[in-house]
Design a protein that fits this description.
By secondary structure, the chain is an alpha/beta fold. Helix content is 48%, strand content 19%.
């Protein structure tokens, strides 16, 4: 069966990023996802990439909520959507992690669940109705958008914890996860967000599952490569908890590694477990990094084509 598969975007410079997304669109991938990090702002980059493409969905995975007031986020997201065009922009947001928020920005992370809920209560009406009047414990907002895209901008939330999943289901269009394996999606993420959406009378949410992926005949080498390249995620409590939900203890265990048949089977099992979309972070195994990446990409392209 055909799968909705997107790729993790990013390159050393903007020209290469343009080449990358044009190639992904030509290959039939459904989406490209761009992380927001210190030194990189995907909300600035995506209009450039949108102008170079016409069909592929472009999304953020994610933009941190804390540094931007939700009114400002709505203004920026609307501008990006208009620049990209075609209803192809999806805004992925998240509260990030305590070290990033407290050490980088000097902001208080203690009430992150309340922060997220109120953030969505401001952001949602701004993007769907073009205006908001809200007073809460975390935010006060009275604003109106003078220019809006033709269609509302979908919002997905990097939700891993139960409270965040409830907020994402009841106030947003879905979730975009990282390091949540099939077991975590099936037993935790999908049931909680689907229940919250149903209770709120909202459509079934998207469950966009991000995981490292490598096609290789040497599974041990693949796990070792994943351990080296993704070790930092295992040090963050938010990811430690979702790894534990999946019955594993490290990012290397979360990675999808194996030959073509094994990787295809696992991606199809993810879809059966509740994933509506998969965004693959392709990583190399072995000395020939380009050949390794190409082998993985070729399989994913075939799976998208069905």
């Amino acid at each position: 069966m055909a799968l909705r598969i997107g790729l993790s975007g990013g390159a050393a410079n903007v020209d290469r990023m343009v080449d990358q997304v044009v190639e992904a669109e030509a290959d039939g991938f459904t989406s490209m996802w761009y992380a927001g990090a210190i030194g990189t702002d995907p909300l600035v980059l995506l209009p450039v990439l949108g102008r170079a493409t016409s069909t592929i969905e472009l999304g953020t995975s994610i933009v941190q909520t804390y540094p931007r007031h939700p009114v400002l986020m709505a203004q920026q997201a609307s501008a990006v959507a208009m620049a990209v065009g075609g209803g192809r922009f999806t805004l992925g947001i998240g509260v990030s992690h305590r070290p990033a928020i407290e050490m980088t920005y000097g902001l208080d992370y203690d009430r992150n669940a309340e922060h997220l809920r109120e953030y969505l209560e401001v952001l949602g009406p701004m993007l769907t109705e073009g205006k908001v009047a809200f007073e809460g414990g975390e935010y006060t907002a009275r604003a109106e958008l003078r220019m809006r895209p033709d269609a509302p901008v979908p919002v997905v939330v990097a939700a891993l914890a139960s409270k965040a999943l409830r907020s994402a289901g009841s106030l947003a269009d879905g979730t975009i996860t990282w390091m949540a394996n099939r077991r975590a999606i099936e037993s935790h993420v999908a049931p909680k967000i689907n229940a919250a959406a149903s209770e709120a009378g909202r459509p079934a949410p998207r469950v966009i599952v991000g995981l490292p992926v490598a096609v290789t005949d040497d599974v041990d080498a693949g796990r070792q490569a994943a351990a080296e390249q993704f070790a930092g995620y295992g040090m963050l409590p938010n990811y430690q908890r979702i790894l534990a939900r999946g019955g594993i203890s490290s990012p290397a265990d979360a990675a999808i590694v194996g030959n073509e048949a094994a990787v295809a089977a696992e991606l199809e099992a993810l879809a059966a477990a509740g994933a509506t979309d998969i965004w693959a972070a392709i990583f190399p195994v072995g000395d020939d990094r380009r050949a390794s990446r190409d082998r993985t990409k070729n399989l994913l392209r075939d799976l998208v084509a069905g």
